[in-house]
């Protein structure tokens, strides 16, 4: 039996499943570390009816790829420098693999979602923050740490991001940026000037990432993308305006949302050894 766990700043999701399908799934608020690991242990017991073969945990970065050790995730309390793989393999008595949350979502979308049959697949989540993951030949691209292309710097000076950088993609385009600029919920800003400006910056960031990786498709998930055409039209327009040296790349909505991460985690649990 394979288990996928997706630990986000507000929600934790735990599911069992196989071959792109979820069998049982639980969703609960993310607590500080000590309570959080207890909640996850109980949830794993509830969703698993037989012996667990492997568990994959998707987490916000940065993560040291070789060891599965977290650095200092800005949105998780008490998780700084925790070796998540070691901690959970003891608690769950199973093999545990730790991976960047956006990268596992990228894997799910590339195998069973909007990126199926395409290679490489660039996946982007745009919600409170922005994250990117790349799947090449069916495998997650990794560096020493998971790459943080959602934090790519787009200008010399400007707003400071929660990560400490100035004028990075997240500080210019994420939901948190729209909220800081206007004091309003991003959902109430769809179609406004602030919204279009943010989507233009997002298109510039995506153009840079297309130039770096030359993906066959760009798949976008996350809360802001739920605005549909009012999200995708300005983003596609921006990429069309900025990308010159390479042909245009299809930019499409995630097909497995909101389960892209869980399905990707279960897939990685099935395929890693
Ligand atoms: Zn940042």
UniProtKB/TrEMBL annotation:
Source organism of this protein record: Candidatus Woykebacteria bacterium RBG_13_40_15
Protein name: Sugar kinase
Family: Belongs to the ROK (NagC/XylR) family.
Domain of life: Bacteria
Pfam families (UniProt xref): ROK
């Amino acid at each position: 039996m394979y288990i996928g766990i997706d630990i986000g700043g507000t929600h934790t999701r735990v599911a069992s499943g196989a071959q792109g399908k979820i069998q049982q799934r639980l969703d609960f608020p993310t607590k500080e570390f000590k309570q959080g690991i207890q909640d996850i242990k109980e949830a794993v017991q509830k969703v698993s009816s037989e012996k667990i073969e492997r568990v994959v945990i998707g987490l916000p970065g940065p993560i040291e790829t070789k060891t599965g050790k977290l650095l200092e995730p800005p949105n998780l309390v008490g998780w700084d420098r925790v070796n998540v793989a070691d901690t959970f393999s003891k608690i769950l008595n199973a093999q545990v693999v730790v991976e960047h949350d956006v990268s596992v979502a990228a894997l799910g979308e590339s195998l069973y979602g909007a990126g199926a049959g395409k290679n490489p697949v660039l996946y982007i989540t745009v919600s409170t923050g922005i994250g990117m993951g790349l799947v090449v030949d069916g495998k997650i691209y990794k560096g020493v740490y998971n790459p943080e292309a959602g934090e790519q710097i787009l200008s010399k000076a400007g707003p400071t991001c929660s990560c400490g950088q100035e004028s990075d993609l997240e500080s210019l385009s994420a939901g948190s940026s729209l909220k800081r600029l206007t004091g309003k919920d991003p959902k109430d800003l769809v179609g406004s000037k602030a919204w279009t400006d943010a989507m233009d910056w997002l298109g510039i960031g995506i153009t840079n990432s297309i130039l770096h990786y030359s993906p066959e498709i760009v798949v976008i998930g996350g809360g802001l993308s739920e605005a549909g055409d009012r999200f995708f039209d300005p983003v596609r327009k921006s990429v069309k305006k900025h990308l010159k040296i390479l042909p245009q790349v299809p930019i499409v909505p995630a097909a497995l949302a909101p389960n892209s991460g869980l399905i990707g985690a279960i897939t990685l649990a099935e395929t890693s050894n």
